[in-house]
Design brief:
The structure is a single chain. By secondary structure, the protein is of the alpha+beta class. It has one domain. It is about 45% helix and about 15% strand. It has two helices and four strands, in the order H-E-E-H-E-E. The protein has a two-stranded antiparallel sheet. Strands 3-4 form a two-stranded antiparallel sheet. The longest helix is centred in the first third of the chain and has 41 residues. The N and C termini lie far apart (about 55 Å).
Length: about 100
């Protein structure tokens, strides 16, 4: 900061510092939301069942889940959703029997 006796210069410096601090905090929050969302997504993919609908393909339902961050003017929202077969959410919520005959929640 340059030496100045003007109150306006000091006010501008403080305002710029607060604005930069706010921006840095927002970036840290975005990074933390992304980190937590990816951890939750990984946990969902580990416990997700295999489809019995097409026995020849045995498609693993974990491939249907996506994590996205939605940014609005004043909100940062992390969303995990199933792109296909929305019924998977109910399986994960209420539990299902996996191929070892254990109930998974």
């Amino acid at each position: 900061m340059k030496k100045s006796n003007s109150v306006v210069d000091i006010f501008d410096f403080v305002a710029d510092s607060i604005q930069q601090y706010t921006y840095d905090i927002q970036e840290q929050i975005k990074a933390e939301i992304k980190n937590v969302g990816e951890k939750i997504l990984a946990e969902i993919k580990i416990t997700c069942p295999i489809s019995n609908k097409h026995l020849t393909k045995r498609r693993h339902l974990k491939d249907y889940f996506v994590f996205k961050i939605k940014l609005t003017k004043d909100k940062i929202i992390g969303v995990i959703y199933a792109t296909k077969q929305y019924q998977i959410i109910h399986l994960l919520e209420y539990g299902y029997i996996n191929h070892w005959n254990k109930i998974v929640f």
